[in-house]
Design a protein that fits this description.
The structure holds two protein chains of two kinds. Helix content of chain A is 19%, strand content 38%. Chain A has eight helices and 20 strands. Chain A has a ten-stranded mixed β-sheet with strand order 2-1-6-8-10-12-14-16-18-20, covered by helices on one side. Chain A has a ten-stranded mixed β-sheet with strand order 3-4-5-7-9-11-13-15-17-19. The longest helix of chain A has 17 residues. Chain B is α/β, with parallel strands linked by helices. In chain B, 40% of the residues lie in helices and 28% in strands. Chain B has nine helices and twelve strands. In chain B, the strands form three sheets. Chain B has a six-stranded mixed β-sheet with strand order 6-9-10-3-11-12, sandwiched between helices. In chain B, strands 2-1-4-5 form a four-stranded antiparallel β-sheet. In chain B, strand 4 and strand 5 form a beta hairpin. In chain B, helix 6 runs parallel beside helix 7. The longest helix of chain B is centred in the C-terminal third of the chain and has 18 residues. The chains are: A alpha/beta, B alpha/beta.
Chain lengths: 426, 251
């Protein structure tokens, strides 16, 4: 077999200015992660899952600048009664954050958890390691090695309110690496909200371990300015009869790559991953999802909708892997784009790989323009072309938005979309 | 109110004339019916009046209360008082019927410089109108026309008409796909909207709709022209003898 020689020099260039944090319980995991990274190399365009998205900006040492919005930032989830945790350019803002205390929940910070027996030791970098097979996720390893902070959340019961992580970008060339670890013990429940452009360049990882019967919800808005570069990974492991539901809304950003890698290890578990994005012009948004069914009677669902305009590019790479023995799997996957002009592009790679014989799996992928008949129908009732197009655009996104169970949260994100449409007339 | 003068229309993409000099005036308070065989240009007339793409007006004018219709976008025509009840109402997944109705009502009000209708007022009126048309709360909540039966779609058209209170209502084969009961319900809805300020142009294939919506005038359209005009009796003549005899008589 020919081994493609990777340009391993890229790694040394990429990490030249980074320091591997030393002297705490995570050091071993960080060292291992760096080894993993050195064994696979940085992502390259010829890697199977980087064909549609240029990884260059994540490989270079310097950070391309991203404008810091001068406007007073609207905090998306400000109306939600939640425990608020604020990071400014990846640095914990104690003043703006609530006390890290919540009933049934213990919250520590990665940067300030020196105890050598921390519970997160058995997870940090572990789910990321599991997620490296069969496809390497080098940016995930890079993150585990060099993450400067993040939250470590251990949930032992039903959390009385969500954790709301608010990211602020302060500097034009901030380069941020954050790594969160969440462990829900049997029967526990938690919702995590995330919002904001975190940095000019962000590498964000969440490892989520959902034990038997536990329920985890994740709602995220990536409301970027036009220049942000963002790479995120969610590495999740699901136990028996557990539930994992994650939704991401991406607004603006020059390049966003969201990977979600889920390993279903317990029977009768449910995993839903969904996303909506709206992009205008210099916008490249990539959802890469890999769900492994390794247990019986589980349900997984991927729903992604992208609205693209003025040369914007949307990418979807979604895979459902059903291992031998994962009988009665119910897998569903849909990815659709609404191209508002002829310049925009949607690139999709839907995949099913099935080794069990008693499963239901389906996938679909479509690209389309605004339905002219519907547009005329609305206009014939006095609705302007602009307003009618907006109505139809929101209608297109509705199937993805409906994946957000909580009506209030869905409403908040829909308002974000309406705001975007208002700001991007014609 | 609505004056169509020497209207010539062809398909935009091919050199095929469809309307070849239509002349028609619909006065306020009157109901005009247009009947005619398949392919005579009846539906084209309704689309051209409401501003659908794909047609080219090669000659003639249409005037709505002194305004040149062809100088207006479809939404402007609507705000000016034109309403087309579609032969095939369009299904719009993801847009709630209620949201649609309210957006339409308020868009028209806004364009006329009127205040938007409050949510409470809107709800009150829409419930009242819906009840008259036997449209239940579920139909109002569902996405526009999605999963509606043929009859429900047509009733939904009449509900929109009732909410928008147009000056000129064009009904394009509103009876198609309706059973007798549904047709009666739709006709009752239309009749309740008849008044001295509103004109109707009812396009239909069959006379049976005209048993329920009594026209003041009946026009026969053939090969892109109105070839005969008469009173309600003309519709009966079509019913009894078919278009063939009638058209033979004209020629």
């Amino acid at each position: 077999m020919t081994v493609l020689t990777k340009n391993f020099r890229d790694i040394e260039l990429r990490i030249a200015k980074l320091n591997l944090p030393q002297g705490d319980w995570a050091t071993e995991a960080r060292t291992d992660a760096l080894k993993r990274l050195r064994s696979v190399g940085m992502p390259e365009r010829r890697d199977e899952y980087w064909r549609f998205t240029r990884p260059d900006v994540f490989n270079q040492s310097g950070t391309p600048p991203a404008t810091v919005s001068a406007m007073e930032k609207e905090i998306v989830f400000s109306q939600v009664d939640a425990l608020q945790i604020v990071f400014d350019d990846g640095i914990f803002n104690a003043k703006e954050s609530d006390t890290l205390a919540l009933e049934y929940v213990s919250i520590d910070r990665l940067a300030e958890s020196s105890s050598d027996t921390h519970w997160a030791k058995s997870l940090y970098g572990q789910l990321e390691t599991n997620g490296q097979k069969p496809v390497p996720r080098p940016l995930g390893s890079l993150n585990t090695a060099f993450a400067t902070d993040g939250i470590l959340v251990l949930v032992k019961g039903s959390a009385p309110k969500p954790i709301n992580i608010i990211y602020n970008q302060k500097e034009e060339t901030s380069d941020v690496t954050l790594h969160h670890v969440v462990r829900l013990e049997a029967g526990a429940e938690l919702t995590i909200l995330e919002s904001g452009p975190a940095a000019a360049r962000l590498n964000n990882v969440i490892e989520v371990d959902v034990a038997d019967g536990a329920v985890f919800h994740h709602i995220r808005t990536q409301n970027n300015t036009k220049d942000n570069h963002v790479a995120t990974h969610i590495f999740a492991r699901l136990g028996n009869a557990s539930t994992f539901k994650s939704f991401t809304l991406t607004i603006n950003g020059k390049l966003t790559r969201n990977e979600c890698l889920i390993e279903i290890t317990g029977d009768d578990a449910v995993a839903h991953v969904a996303g909506a994005c709206v992009g205008d012009g210099n916008f490249h948004q990539d959802d890469t999802v890999f769900i492994t069914h390794d247990a019986k009677g589980c349900e997984s669902r991927q729903v992604f909708k992208k609205v693209l305009r003025n040369g914007a590019v949307g990418v979807f790479q979604g895979k459902i892997l059903v291992k031998a023995g994962a009988q009665k799997t119910d897998g569903y996957q849909i990815s659709q784009s609404l191209l508002l002009d002829g310049d925009s592009q949607f690139l999709a790679k839907p995949e099913l790989e099935i080794y069990a014989d008693d499963v239901i799996c389906s996938h679909g992928s479509t690209s389309g323009a605004i339905d002219e008949d519907a547009l005329f129908y609305l206009r014939s009732r006095g609705i302007s072309e602009y307003e009618a197009t907006n109505l139809l655009t929101l209608a297109f996104l509705a199937e993805a938005m409906d994946e957000i169970e909580d009506e209030d949260l869905r409403e908040m994100l829909t308002r974000q979309l309406e705001g975007w449409l208002e700001r991007h007339r014609g | 109110m609505l004056t169509i003068n020497n209207l010539h229309v062809k398909l935009e993409e091919e050199d095929k004339p469809i309307l070849k000099g239509v002349n028609l005036t619909v006065e306020a308070g009157k109901v005009h019916a247009i009947m005619g065989p398949n392919g005579s240009g009846k539906s084209t007339l309704s689309y051209v009046l409401s501003g659908k793409d794909g047609y080219e007006v090669t000659d003639g004018t249409v005037n709505l209360n002194g305004q040149d219709v062809f100088g207006m976008e479809p939404e402007e025509r609507s705000s000016a008082g034109m309403f087309l009840a579609f032969q095939y109402p369009v299904e719009i997944p993801g847009v709630g019927n209620m949201t649609f109705l309210r957006t339409a009502v308020n868009a028209q009000r806004k364009s006329r410089g009127e205040e938007e209708m409050s949510a409470a007022e809107f709800l009150k009126i829409v419930r009242l109108r819906a009840k008259e048309l036997k449209i239940d709360a579920d139909m109002l909540k569902r996405p526009v026309n999605v999963g509606f039966s043929g009859g429900e779609k047509k009733r939904n058209e009449i509900l929109q008409m009732a909410m928008l209170e147009p000056k000129i209502c064009i009904l394009d084969e509103t009876d198609s796909g309706l059973d007798v009961d549904a047709m009666k319900l739709v006709a009752d809805g239309v009749n309740s909207l008849r008044n001295s300020n509103r004109g109707f142009l009812v396009i239909t294939h069959y006379q049976r709709l005209l048993d329920h919506i009594k026209p003041d005038y009946v026009h026969i359209m053939a090969d892109g022209q109105i070839v005969k005009t008469g009173g309600p009796d003309l519709a009966l003549e079509v019913e009894n003898n078919g278009y063939k005899d009638l058209l033979a008589g004209v020629a």
